[in-house]
From TrEMBL:
Transmembrane segments: none annotated. InterPro entries: His_Pase_superF_clade-1 (IPR013078), His_PPase_superfam (IPR029033), PG/BPGM_mutase_AS (IPR001345), Phosphoglycerate_Mutase (IPR051695). It comes from the Bacteria. Keywords: Hydrolase. It comes from Lactobacillus xylocopicola. Pfam families: His_Phos_1 (PF00300). This is Phosphoglycerate mutase.
């Protein structure tokens, strides 16, 4: 049985608002983030889900609780937290100023005087950007392409095992992780180049097939357009 997967990005956080690097480190949802999520939750309130899951980071947990509490047609009990769906890990850069971080990453990638992540990726490619981030990290802890690929595959496998008897599930994850899933699994992506970063509270819809294969069929859309 195939499982329909609604991937929701968490709401805006304080670190999003302050332009700080936010991967495995956490910060609370802002008032705007909560209000945006309430609109998403209201749109999804009449969609039946067999289950809901989330990353184990608090901003995702808070988001999935909003989704569950607003839903009027599902009976969701305790929500299982899946660390495999955490945000991309930025190592020593966690919590640092975004532009200062991207300057260091750009330098490691052979670029100078660049602090905009989109322009860096457009010049060197998403995979070289991952490698440059790990290289620029003083402790080399940031996830590179190979490490992130391995975690994505594990995430899909874990979700497949959990949802084997479920027709539709919702899982709250994170912007860069959902984007990386999109690069790999979205049927409109070539699997090589960067794609747009998903909005806070947006929905990407995937199909997890019985044989374990996964595909994203809708990416970064307003819940009302699903």
């Amino acid at each position: 049985m195939a499982t329909e997967v609604y991937l929701v990005r968490h709401g805006e956080t304080m670190f999003n608002q302050l332009d700080k690097v936010q991967g495995w480190c956490d910060s609370p949802l802002t008032v705007k983030g909560i209000n945006d999520l309430k609109r998403t939750a209201q749109v999804l309130s009449q969609v039946y889900f067999d289950n809901m899951y989330s990353s184990d980071l608090k901003r995702a947990i808070d988001t999935v609780h909003l989704m569950r509490d607003a839903n009027q047609v599902s009976e969701i009990g305790k929500i299982k937290k899946l660390p495999e769906f955490r945000e991309v890990f930025f190592g020593s850069f966690e919590g640092d100023d975004i532009r200062d971080t991207w300057k260091q990453v750009a330098h490691a990638a052979g670029l100078s005087n660049e602090d905009d992540v989109t322009r860096i990726i457009n010049q060197v490619g998403i995979y070289e950007f991952r490698e440059a981030t790990k290289q620029a990290d003083p402790r080399h802890l940031a996830e590179n392409k190979a490490e992130l690929d391995e975690r994505m595959i594990q995430a899909i496998s874990v979700l497949g095992d959990l949802s084997r008897q479920e027709q539709r599930v919702l899982i709250v994850s994170h912007g860069d992780f959902i984007k990386t899933l999109g690069i790999k699994y979205w049927n409109k992506s070539d699997g090589l180049h960067d794609i747009i970063f998903p909005d806070n509270g947006s929905v990407s819809r995937g199909i997890l097939h019985e044989n374990g294969e996964f595909e994203i069929v809708d990416y970064n859309v307003d819940a009302k357009d699903i």
